[in-house]
Amino acid sequence: DQQVKQNSPSLSVQEGRISILNCDYTNSMFDYFLWYKKYPAEGPTFLISISSIKDKNEDGRFTVFLNKSAKHLSLHIVPSQPGDSAVYFCAARGEGSSASKIIFGSGTRLSIRP
Amino acid sequence: NAGVTQTPKFQVLKTGQSMTLQCAQDMNHNSMYWYRQDPGMGLRLIYYSASEGTTDKGEVPNGYNVSRLNKREFSLRLESAAPSQTSVYFCASSEGYLNYGYTFGSGTRLTVV
User: Fold this and answer.
1) Do residues A110 and A19 touch, judged by C-beta distance below 8 A?
2) Which residues are paired to A35 by β-bridges?
3) How confident is the model over B41-84, as pLDDT tens digits?
4) B83 upstream amide cis, omega within 30 of 0
5) Predicted pLDDT at B1
6) Segment among A90-94, A100-104, B87-91 with least mean pLDDT
7) Do residue A43 and residue B90 have CB atoms under 8 angstroms apart?
8) Are B94 and A47 in contact (CB under 8 A)?
């Protein structure tokens, strides 16, 4: 049973527009949420994170929103650029003894079209 | 550049063969991890080492063993490879409890025929 779900395997967005990637989770004990970006033939790279005590975190063109009541988070990229084309993984960190483990979703492939 | 180095990058094995995937980090991180990535499954944790001298099972440990050789190195061993172990394997490291941003290696693409 997947604890972190990304229900959209792919997303296509026009350059300059907003990209919104969604993620749902089932475990209310997660204390940190993260987004990773992955290019082909490379390892994932950390993009942005949010603590469970916040509802928004912004870093340049990237903003992550957290809705705890809905167990939902989203990544907004504005404006979208060609270099943003990649696979994006949503991830969550367990608290307590499992704090050092991160659980990943299945990923969303974002394509930015000209 | 500092980071996580994985070897080899590609490997083809016959069913039943054994091999060890190597991973080394030079960031003085305490915790290290092995993940596998399969289509539609995301990244799944195989084993992790929270600190030097300790290892623990993750979500999909069957068919694998690990060794935390020292603080820098964390190897993954397949004793008797099976086609179901065809995957891309990623090693990662982190400072530990207070650092949630993992640094990943570039991966090992393993095919078992």
Assistant:
1) yes
2) A48, A90
3) 889 999 999 889 899 998 899 999 999 989 999 999 999 999 99
4) no
5) 63
6) A100-104
7) yes
8) no
Query: Facing residues of B78 across strands?
Result: B19, B64
Tokens representing A67?
């809705």
CB atoms within 10 A of CB A14: 12
> Which of B5, B30, B37, B43 to mutate: most A Cβ within 10 Å?
B43
Residue the block writes with tokens 């307590």: A96
Is A22 within 8 Å of A72 (Cβ atoms)? yes
Average pLDDT taken over every residue of chain A:
92
Helix (H, G, I), strand (E, B) or coil at A84: helix
**In 10 A of CB B8, how many CB atoms?**
11
**Non-local CB neighbours of B111 within 8 Å, separated by 6+ positions:** B11, B12, B13, B86
Q: Which residues of B touch A105 (CB under 8 A)?
A: 42
Max intra-chain CA distance, chain A: 46
Q: Which among B40, B63, B49 is positioned nearest to A109, based on CA atoms?
A: B40
Helix, strand and coil percent figures for chain A, each rounded to 5: 5, 55, 40
